[in-house]
């Protein structure tokens, strides 16, 4: 560990100097400093790094895909980081190597809340079997999600076989994380369903399992009641994942109660979905969705950043709102301008 | 009525001959044959009709927007058509003019099930205060939805102040209809929640009100129980529309029980949302979404129909699935080919 930390500091100095092969080999050998460097490269906004980072990724691609990717969401304060610390340590103890990442759409605005300065994973981040990486900063959610997907690949190539991704329910972040993980955990608190009201629509339907968290002390009995209430609601919903019944569980990251059981539930989930083919199917459709969303994003980015479009669209849009022309006609107009000009 | 039917036949003969001004005036005067012709024009796939139809629409645009647009969904056999017949007649009786349209994504595949040959709105379609138009045939859901939006405008210009749009839960049709209406009704059947399981995820969350339908005879008591069960679930959900609590109601299109009350609920909904500004806000964001979705659709259509893209994309996609390259690199490749070639 200490040796690697040392390396990290040295390497940081001539970061961009490291060759592609060095990075590929370093990551493959599980060198943490090299992994950190490769992630920094992938996260870079500089277009000069884009080519290099794609070459590193492509070189590592044959060694990726062998982890279980897990998304963890919940309102701020649900205890996501604390849970990841407890759950991650347990997974390390039973033989896994765990990488922790974050998708935090708020980080570009507020400076980041999850996995940021106030990270509570002090023990896990000291563990040689774990790797904790804070949220990539800046950029749109689309950009952050691209970086996170690529960081997952890097961590897999480095030998981490469990990837835990923390995200908070801001914007579309849960949907984005759902689209890159095999298993999605929703952390909830007690309070007789009142939290559900505060929860965004549809989040419950993304989850593979629900954890009523902080089920300890005075809160334990209430958590058990809340669990039953959720199970009733869940009974009415179609499962997210073929052949898997979504259920609520209780757990405490303080007492550790329920943590081991959740690891068992996860194992069960993976076994079932690998057997019925859903695991592979979802991975494939996630790749497809990733590819197509990048294509769509780029087509839109080109269009909306075109000078003529930027100049004309607001006027045309205003005409639509004022009832001066139909959206159909307006769309034709602006697309005509774009086509004429070329891109 | 009979006179207008006569006109309809005559006009049909030289349909494409009718001038733009004739159509605009005819629709504005509430001439049903002219309205039918204008809708046929708007629904046409022929590109030579596109210009004319946009001119007609633009001429009528100042007279649109003054209706209440209502979406009605439910599984096949939920009784949507029968309900529209009963509800529509009641609305006519209390002074409204009602137009009935359909968005049926299955029609291009199966030849149409809703509002098709087996339409059950015999009485309503005879009523001079009502106008019933079957589902536009053919085309993608995106195409059908453009036509329906434009048909709504035509019906409004013709003086219909209530537009009822029937749709079945196939593909994304409910989401599409939700994005074009002010009020969204979900018709459900009794059965202690079992139907919910068969329902697609998220549909409940699109609704402004839920109707437990066919609440008559032996079924009535069960319907009341089901209503309570739904109200319990709804209690846990965030409202779709600001300031409006989604509730379940019972109704029977056979006995007529509950129909009048639903008209009252609708009135209440409109009053509240007009007062709190949500009505206008949603209309505006629907216009924006319509415009932007047409732009996006066209950008994608151009890209995916480009010969080079059609040739290269399947190979590149395959490489992604086989783990030979990352989606990021693959996207860059195919976009590079597209850009190079121009469009
Ligand atoms: N009683 C109890 N408290 C807990 C438990 N887990 C976390 N907490 C407390 O809950 C608070 C929030 O914990 P975090 O882990 O930071 O929550 P988070 O969901 O990661 O929060 P954000 O990252 O800011 O969205 C802290 O004060 C924790 O000590 C638990 O199992 N039991
Ligand atoms: N008991 C009872 N039966 C009804 C009621 N309304 C409709 N039905 C029956 O339910 C069946 C389906 O009615 P439709 O109106 O065609 O249903 P739909 O939802 O429009 O069906 P599709 O358009 O095919 O999706 C018919 O046999 C109707 O007679 C009602 O209020 N009570
Ligand atoms: Mg946190
Ligand atoms: Mg029908």
Descriptive key words:
7-stranded parallel sheet; 11% strand; GTP binding (chains A, B); binds magnesium ion; Methylmalonyl-CoA mutase metallochaperone MeaB (chains A, B); 3 domains; alpha/beta; GTPase activity (chains A, B); Single alpha-helices involved in coiled-coils or other helix-helix interfaces; P-loop_NTPase (chains A, B); Helix Hairpins; GTPase_ArgK (chains A, B); binds guanosine-5'-triphosphate; 55% helix; 343 residues; homodimer; Rossmann fold
Walk me through this protein's architecture.
Two copies of one chain form a homodimer. Chain A is α/β, with parallel strands linked by helices and 343 residues long. Chain A has three domains: 2-61, Single alpha-helices involved in coiled-coils or other helix-helix interfaces; 64-276, P-loop containing nucleotide triphosphate hydrolases (Rossmann fold), CATH 3.40.50; 287-341, Helix Hairpins, CATH 1.10.287.130. In chain A, 55% of the residues lie in helices and 11% in strands. Chain A contains 15 helices and seven strands. The first copy, chain A, has helices at 2-13, 20-28, 32-43, 47-60, 80-93, 107-110, 122-126, 141-157, 173-178, 194-198, 219-235, 259-275, 278-304, 307-321, 327-341; strands at residues 68-74, 98-103, 130-132, 162-168, 183-188, 209-212, 247-250. In chain A, helix 2 packs across helix 3 (32-43) and helix 3 (32-43) packs antiparallel against helix 8. The termini of chain A are far apart. At the A-B interface, helix 4, helix 8, helix 13, helix 14 and helix 15 of A face helix 4, helix 8, helix 13, helix 14 and helix 15 of B. Residues 74, 76-82, 113-114, 120, 168, 213-214, 216, 252-254 of chain B line the site of one guanosine-5'-triphosphate (GTP). One guanosine-5'-triphosphate binds at residues 74, 76-82, 113-114, 120, 168, 213-214, 216, 252-254 of chain A.
